[in-house]
Design a protein that fits this description.
Strand 6, helix 4 and strand 7 form a beta-alpha-beta unit. The protein contains nine helices and twelve strands. The relative contact order is 0.15. It is of the alpha/beta class. It is elongated, with a radius of gyration of 19 Å. The longest helix has 21 residues. Strands 5-2-1-6-7-12-11-8-9-10 form a ten-stranded mixed sheet, sandwiched between helices. Strands 3-4 form a two-stranded antiparallel ribbon.
């Protein structure tokens, strides 16, 4: 992989995301990692920048030295498992999504890695504010890492697709590139609401799906019904899935996954990283 941006506030969820990054580094070569921290995190909370611009957080030399010391330890850990990776560190007081946007102005970001949990209920039932903003922006390939007992090497991947407008949304090149680096065993699961598509639409979209992905030799499955979070979670458990891959967009079903009503449920049920690909 080319350039990965790792976001950290040095919290427990961020540590889980870093452990997953280390595992990816062991599994495949990563040319470059940019570690980014925003001082917009104040006392464990997020410094919100909206329509009203509050004064910036007060940062002194001690704060900067502390962050740079933490970055140094993380950098050494990463270089121990991936010595040829170029590692850079950056920090500022921007809102995180703006900080990432500025990095993207000068770099081609192939992947952003971030912890999933937020601070609500000690992180048990919520997706973090910054993580949710990145999800809604849908501007980068995004790896969301939950808190897990053990970090697994990516072997089995579940690609969950909604056949609706699939030709417009399926990032075939990105999926094939993942296969080039990770050598995954693929499970392709179509999730759709029964009666949503006409027979002709289903045939056309299914034909496109098979012509695009059959070279991966995946297993294909179909899940019907409304409660996809629990259904997909059961599939992940039953088939030893290591990473759940989605291609959310307003046109597709998966946009509904990350609305406020569903986010807590997803955070509770998700036991493996979610890789959200941009189309």
């Amino acid at each position: 992989m080319e350039t990965i941006v790792y976001l950290t506030d040095f919290s427990v969820p961020a540590r889980h995301a870093f452990d997953q990054l280390l595992t990816i580094a062991k599994q495949t070569g990563i040319k470059r990692v940019i570690m980014y921290h925003s001082f917009a995190y104040v006392n464990g909370g997020f410094y919100n920048v909206g329509d009203f611009m509050p004064p910036p957080p007060l940062i002194d030399d001690t704060d900067i030295e502390d962050v740079e010391a933490k970055f140094h330890l993380l950098k050494q850990e990463l270089l121990n498992v991936s010595p040829f990776t170029k590692v850079e560190t950056r920090h500022d007081s921007l809102a995180v999504i703006e900080g990432v946007r500025r990095i993207a102005q000068h770099e081609h970001i192939e992947l952003v890695v971030v912890g999933m949990r937020g601070s609500d209920d000690n992180g048990k039932n919520s997706i973090g504010t910054t993580t949710n903003e990145l999800i809604q922006a849908h501007a980068y390939n995004l790896l969301l890492v939950p808190e897990m007992d053990a970090i697994a090497i990516f072997k089995n991947a579940l690609l969950a697709v909604d056949l609706s407008h699939l030709k417009e949304r399926l990032p075939v090149k990105a999926i094939l590139r993942l296969q080039e680096f990770l050598k995954l065993k693929w499970h392709v699961v179509n999730v759709s609401i029964e009666g949503k598509h006409t027979a002709a639409e289903l045939v056309e979209e299914q034909s496109f799906l098979h012509s695009s992905l059959d070279s991966l030799e995946p297993s294909y499955s179909y899940l019907d019904g409304e409660d996809f979070v629990e259904r997909l979670s059961s599939y992940v458990h039953d088939h030893d899935i290591d990473v759940l891959i989605t291609v959310p967009r307003k046109l597709g079903f998966f946009a509904n996954f990350f609305q406020k009503r569903a986010s807590k449920k997803l955070a509770v049920y998700t036991k493996v990283p979610i890789l959200m690909l941009i189309s």
